[in-house]
Amino acid sequence: MRRWKIALPYLAGALAAAVVAGLLGLIFMWSGLYNVAASSPHSEPMEWGLHRTMIQSVHRHAKSVVAPERFSAAQVAAGFCQYEAHCVACHGAAGVAREQWVSGMEPAPPYLLDATSRWNRAELFWIAKNGIKMTGMPAWQDAMSDRDVWSVVAFIEAARQMQPQTYVEWRAQRRCPIKEPGVGP
User: Fold this and answer.
1) Any residues with CB less than 8 A from the CB of 76 and at least 6 apart, and which?
2) Which residues does 121 contact at the CB level (< 8 Å), separation at least 6?
3) φ and ψ at 15, to 5 degrees?
4) What is the pTM for the complete model shown?
5) Residue 156 falls within a domain, yes or no?
C-alpha cells in the first residue's frame, strides 16, 4: 500500500503530461501553422519520423509476402511494359528522366535504379501493390494483378544489371502493345 501512495503522484503527473501533450498537439493541428504545401519540404524531424515510420511499416507488413525465388526473362519483359505504363513518369529509368510535373511532389518519388539495395522482393511487391500514404505512391492492387506487380518487381531487379541505354532501346523498339482506351483488360 505504501508503494502505491508513493507511485500515485508520479502516475498522475505522467497522465497529466500526456493529456497536456495531446491537447497541445490538437491545438497545433487546428492552428494551421504547419505548412502542408507540396512546394515546401517537411521539416527535418517530420521527414525523419515519416520516413522511419514508412520503412518500419513496409518491413512489418511485407513479412507475409512470399516472393518467387527467381524471375524469368518473360517476367522482366512484361515488367518493362508495366513499368513503362505505370511507373516511369514518376520514377524515371536509366536514360529516361521523370516527368517535369513530378518536381512538384513532396516528397519526390525516388529513382528506382537502386531500390533493390534498400528493399527485398517481398517489400517491393508490397509497396507497389499497397502504395504509400502521403507520398503520391498509389496502391496498384485494383489496377494491376499480383502477376503484373511481380513483373514490375522482376523488371526493377533486372534493371539494376542492365546497360543504361537498354530501357531507351526497348522503348524505341515499341516492345509493349499499345492498348486503346476502354478496350480490353
Assistant:
1) 151, 154, 155, 158
2) 67, 68, 153, 157
3) -65, -45
4) 0.81
5) yes
We report the CATH number of the domain holding residue 122 as 1.10.760.10
Q: Which of 8, 142, 170, 155 is nearest to 82 (CA)?
A: 155
- Residues contacting 39, CB < 8 A, separation 6+: 104, 106
pLDDT tens digits, 153-174: 999 999 999 998 999 999 999 9
pLDDT digits (tens, 9 = 90+) for 38-54: 788 888 998 899 999 99
Q: Which residue range is the domain that position 71 belongs to?
A: 44-172
The three grid cell numbers given for residue 58, joined into one nine-digit string: 513496409
Write out the three cell numbers for 125.
511487391
Q: Give the CA distances from residue 152 to residues 11, 146, 149, in Å, rounded to whole numbers and listed in that order.
A: 52, 10, 5
Contact between 138 and 73 (Cβ < 8 Å): no
- Whether residue 184 has pLDDT greater than 50: no
